[in-house]
Task: structure prediction
Amino acid sequence: MAMETVSQVIETLRQEGYTEDLNLQQNCIECRAHDFRIFHDEFIIDKYYRFEGESDPADEATVYAVSAPKYGIKGILVNGYGVYTEGLTDEMLRSLQVKHE
Result:
């Protein structure tokens, strides 16, 4: 089944064990449920899903499936393009970049 919406991807990832809601900050990812921060060298992007707005660039987003083995956490990070990446440190930007093989 092709996943066409952000909500479909989030539901599928939750079923796969990505249960934490993660929030992007300038130099880390916050995990509100456990009230702590995960820094750029402590998490792995396991997979990602990119959504492009057909008519409005503001509708563009990436959904990341993130794991932090040090903390035993698997969570979901949703990031809109442009708006939320301006204040990020170089380390965080590199950690979120998509690696093409």
